[in-house]
Amino acid sequence: MKRNIKRGLFYFILGFAGLFLLRLIYGFIAYPNGVEHQVYRNVGGLASTSFKGYSKRNIASKKVQRSNGTQLGNIDQKYEKVAAIHAKSSVFDKDEVATRRVIKDFNALIQFEQSSGLRGNRVLSLAIGVDPTKFDAITDTLSKIGTLTSVRIDKSDKTSEFKELNAKKAALEKIRDNLVALKKRGGKIDEFVTLENRIFEIEEKIQTFGLNLGEFDEENEFCTVKYALKEVAKSKTSIPLSSRLKTAFEWTVKFYFGLVSILFFAALCSLIIVVLIEKLTPVVRRYWR
């Protein structure tokens, strides 16, 4: 009996030691010393928040074929297309130069720029206006600078908004022309002053609509690329042997004793089932007789 207990204890310890050794070897392979890795510092979400103060809209247009019953017709579609690209880099200065070179090569415009953070923890945010025909190409090129962390492209139709602005401006111009015509009829001074004030208010509204419609001018057609580059540092891993031993031991204890517990309860359940079968078999036989 003692010999069987000793043998069982020996195999138990041997299994634990073997699993511990395998886990220790895995730690050295998966996390070797002296390997450089990027250390990403939290910069408070600057890349996602730095464009909050940027409100410039770039509108583009294209000819779209639409069927109208029996014939096809072309309509001018107005749309807004925005790409949001986030990247990180451990060679920040080099990638910043590369970014600006790409912008120059595509004849794009930097419409918004923000630099923040100290060396080793910097963020560059650029809002770029680019010709609609070059949008896909510049987006693809910028995505290859640094290490891409996220990219998102949104396209919104603005045709209805353009038509609505034109309709409102035309309606105000008609009202203004009617009020100007009333001035020629003469009248009391106070009525004349009130009429002038009303015309002035309408002129201001017309100018506002004119500015908004300026965004839809084909001469100013652009698509937008919001590019944010975060700086990350590099450091070399150096994991102490004591830490490796501790990690391997803790993992082995959890895994090995968990496995032993499962095997123990499985054996216990099997034993209970066998005992029940042995106890119930005579009863079943008597019943069927």
Topology:
Blueprint: H1 2-30, E1 36-39, H2 46-49, E2 60-68, E3 71-89, H3 92-105, E4 109-116, E5 123-130, H4 135-142, E6 147-157, H5 159-183, H6 189-214, E7 223-231, E8 233-236, H7 241-288
Parallel strand pairs: 3-7
Antiparallel strand pairs: 1-8, 2-3, 3-6, 4-5, 5-7
Describe the 3D structure.
The chain has 289 residues and is of the alpha+beta class. It folds into 3 domains: 46-154 and 220-236, no CATH class; 161-214; 240-289. Helix content is 53%, strand content 25%. It is built from 7 helices and 8 strands, in the order αβαββαββαβααββα. It has helices at 2-30, 46-49, 92-105, 135-142, 159-183, 189-214, 241-288, and strands at residues 36-39, 60-68, 71-89, 109-116, 123-130, 147-157, 223-231, 233-236. Strands 2, 3, 4, 5, 6 and 7 form a 6-stranded mixed beta sheet that branches. Strands 1-8 form a two-stranded antiparallel sheet. A hairpin with a 2-residue loop joins strand 2 and strand 3 (71-89). The longest helix has 48 residues, at 241-288.
